[in-house]
Design a protein that fits this description.
By secondary structure, the protein is α/β, with parallel strands linked by helices. 33% of the residues lie in helices and 19% in strands. It starts with a strand and ends in an 8-residue tail after the last strand.
């Protein structure tokens, strides 16, 4: 029996397969954006299904699906009005993957999918799971799919504020209590929406996630640039705010950024205003988030562990501050808190409803986010064929060889194993460099990543060394770059290229059990240089998704001036530029 989840979401649609191996869940996730090469694609997940077809074809399937904001039925009906979707699915053998032809597909609500994915990958056996994003399922869709316990949670003792749950409202925040794989919804917050005065495809709301997106639209002409807003915030001064929707209405939208590229943004005369709006968004976000979490902690004083998920959990600045405040004993964020995990959550819902299925925590030493298609792992024959026009070196040790290159100042692509299933490269689809190289950030922004000059870079370091460089306790777990933490003063200058203007760095702590090869590389680099830390950024240029396949890696290598590419056990160079490290 295979369990399949379909994320038919507005952004980051996907398909996921779970198979019970007898020792746990074997998980494989295909993200539409990686396969179509269109960032945050919300296309119907046909491409993702095809990527996994060799596994599901001819097998017995339990199916579950989810769509945010609209129901799946509404979404697919809208698609069918512009393109004969249902006819196409019948003709291409995909009819079983829509409820139009298969009434046995389970409907999953949006926040429950987030919570199920978090539970499946939880390092804790007992914790609270807080889901917060811009908007989840509508009240009507939730009411149709929710179980009686979840419905009763609407009237729980824990009052999160928001609007009265009713038609026209959507999930904004949900709180779940999890113990030994048993998940119980204990509270929800609902929000309503109104039309945006200047952006026909957007909406206004008191939802802090939507407010952040509105500010992103003003500053960067895109609701999908919240990460940029977070990075810009330390450069500004928060403005006064009387209601989130009212603040957005009161802005002079004639001064909003209306361009499309880095050059236009950096030449805008409204830089100070943009920075102040970013600071306002971040301050309001932190104010809302911290009050919410303190209230939850007060209501459940005997629960010491917390998992944050949903799009709001991607705010590593606020996550870092939350950890430093010590409200909870330990805070964990999954590798995919955004909608990349929705298909996994839907598949997990079907999986755990199967009689006899058991749950087991994914302990800290086993945490990883490499659930990409198994086909994304490069084979020697594929590498040699795809890179035949380049110089191909097969060193005795790819980690020692790459570490020497990095120590000489090279910028290197690192492509290994299955791809990361979340938005951040974690050592399988990364660009790596020595963080001590002066001017490295500007070089990456200007010549490789093509990002705005203010944007910072993250770092990866050995789990056992992180507390030496950063203001965290020994043993601090941050495997998914989920927390921005302060760089220790004595390393502030040495690690300037991975330290933001506010003195923090978005770090990844790497345990051997999580990624043995990447851990080995970090150790080899440290043995050669004394620095057990590397700059780590995703292997892509701005506006594109992370590379997925060997072909993607070749296109990236051909288009950017990185010095080399470590892929599988091979090191790739441009012919005529060889040097011995």
């Amino acid at each position: 029996m295979l369990f399949m989840g379909l994320g038919k979401t507005l952004y980051n649609s996907s398909a996921c397969l779970i198979e019970d191996t007898g020792e746990g869940a074997d998980i494989e996730i295909a993200l539409t954006e990686r396969l179509l090469r269109k960032k945050a694609s919300g296309a119907w997940p046909e491409k993702a299904l095809r990527e996994l077809e060799d596994r599901w074809n001819g097998r017995s399937l339990r199916l579950a699906e989810n769509r945010d904001v609209l129901s799946v039925a509404e979404h697919e009906a809208a698609l069918d009005r512009t393109f004969p979707l249902f006819e196409h699915l019948k003709n291409s053998g995909l009819a079983p993957f829509t409820r139009r032809f298969n009434s046995e597909i389970m409907t999953a609500t949006h926040h429950l999918c987030h919570a199920m994915a978090a539970m499946l990958t939880s390092p804790f056996e007992r914790c609270l799971i807080v889901v917060q994003d811009g908007a989840g399922s509508s009240f009507e869709d939730w009411l149709e799919a929710a179980n009686p316990e979840e419905i009763s949670a609407v009237h729980s003792k824990l009052d999160l504020g928001g609007e009265t749950p009713a038609p026209g409202t959507h999930e904004e925040c949900s709180v779940y209590f999890m113990e030994q794989g048993q998940l119980t919804c204990v509270a929800k917050r609902w929000r309503k929406f109104e039309p945006h005065p200047r952006r026909p495809k957007s909406a206004l709301s008191e939802s802090v996630g939507i407010f952040y997106e509105n500010c992103s639209e003003y500053v960067f002409n895109s609701s999908r640039s919240s990460g940029k807003v977070m990075g810009l915030a330390p450069f500004g001064t928060p403005l006064k705010l009387n209601g989130r929707a009212e603040f957005i209405r009161s802005l002079d939208w004639a001064r909003s950024f209306q361009g499309k590229n880095k050059r236009e943004w950096q030449e805008s005369p409204n830089q100070k205003l943009f920075a102040d709006i970013a600071a306002t968004a971040q301050q309001e976000f932190e104010k809302d988030y911290f009050l919410l979490l303190e209230e939850i902690r007060s209501a459940y004083p005997d629960v010491e562990h917390l998992i944050l998920t949903g799009g709001c959990a991607l705010n590593c600045t606020s996550n870092g501050k939350l950890v430093s405040q010590g409200v909870f004993r330990e805070v964990h964020v999954p590798p995919f808190p955004g909608d990349e995990c929705i298909s996994l959550g839907a598949a997990a819902l079907a999986y755990f409803r199967e009689p006899g299925t058991t749950w087991k925590s994914m302990t800290h030493d086993r945490q990883h986010g490499y659930f990409g298609p198994k086909s994304s792992t490069p084979s020697p024959n594929e590498i040699e064929s795809v890179f035949s026009e380049f110089e191909i070196i097969h060193p005795e040790s790819i980690t020692e060889y790459t570490a020497k290159e990095l120590a000489l100042g090279a910028v290197v692509g690192w492509f290994q194993g299955r791809s990361e299933s979340g938005p951040r490269a974690l050592g399988n689809r990364s660009i790596l460099a020595d963080p001590r190289v002066h001017g490295l950030k500007n070089t990456l922004n200007a010549k490789i990543k093509f990002r705005e000059d203010f944007r910072p870079y993250g770092s990866s370091c050995l789990h056992e060394k992180a507390h030496e460089y950063f203001e965290v306790e020994s043993g601090f777990n941050n495997p998914y770059m989920s927390f921005a933490v302060r760089t220790r003063t004595k390393f502030r200058e040495l690690l300037a290229e991975v330290t933001h203007i506010d003195g923090t760095s978005r770090i990844q702590t790497v345990r051997h059990g999580q990624n043995p090869l990447f851990h080995e590389l970090l150790r080899a680099f440290g043995s050669q240089t004394g620095m057990y830390c590397l700059l780590n950024t995703s292997m892509n240029v701005m506006g594109e998704p992370i590379v997925e396949s060997v072909e993607d890696a070749r296109r990236f290598f051909s288009a950017t001036p990185i010095d080399g590419l470590a892929i599988g056990g091979y090191f790739i160079r441009r012919k005529g530029l060889s040097r011995t490290p």
